[in-house]
Design a protein that fits this description.
single chain, alpha+beta, two-stranded parallel ribbon, eight-stranded antiparallel β-barrel
């Protein structure tokens, strides 16, 4: 075998590798084309056309149908089990405190009542379109709780539209004594 032929034979693996790399580069570099869009019939879907609703204009354009509107108070209405914890002021940690059944009833599109926290008191709250509610305030410290000397202030928040579990935190004040509570409501 001549040295000229042996040189080419030695180079075959390198030439094969180079050919493969170039083939992959050219094959991988073909022009991108957009996928065809999913057909959407926007004119037959139903949407809520009430700006006070949480789902305002979801599905627009289409057919206006306010019977599908979901209002802020609708997000929270139902029966729940509340798992409460209370702040241990000395150690600055929340410790398990109580479990109670709570019922939230819708009064109007944005107002509701909370029953079950205190046997003698029905709390009122106002819900907003951003998945939150806060207890109404009748004084600078909150609304009356179980006794005339107790006041409560607090708020609840959902992370997503259809959550069945959400946070509910509140503070009870009785003159100089303040109790901070944190917990979760689980829908039954």
């Amino acid at each position: 075998m001549t040295t000229k032929n042996s040189f080419f034979i030695q180079q075959i693996p390198s030439l094969f590798a180079l050919t493969m790399v170039l083939a992959i580069v050219f094959w991988g570099c073909k022009k991108y084309t957009d996928p065809s869009p999913n057909p959407i019939n926007n004119f037959t879907s139903h949407y809520c056309n009430n700006p006070k609703a949480v789902n305002y204009n979801w599905g627009f354009p289409g057919i206006e149908d306010n019977s599908i509107c979901i209002f802020p108070a609708d997000l929270f209405a139902g029966n729940y089990t509340y798992y409460d914890s209370i702040l241990d002021v000395v150690n600055q940690i929340y410790i398990p405190y109580d479990t109670m059944d709570i019922t939230i009833n819708k009064l109007t599109d944005s107002t509701m009542t909370i029953l079950g926290q205190c046997a003698a008191t029905q709390l009122t709250a106002r819900a907003t379109k951003n998945y939150r509610f806060s207890l109404d305030s009748t004084s600078d410290k909150g609304q009356t709780y179980c006794t005339i000397n107790d006041t409560i202030s607090g708020a609840g928040i959902k992370q997503q539209f259809n959550d069945t579990i959400f946070k509910y935190n509140y503070t009870i004040s009785n003159n100089d004594i303040i109790q901070e509570h944190k917990g979760y409501l689980f829908k039954k």
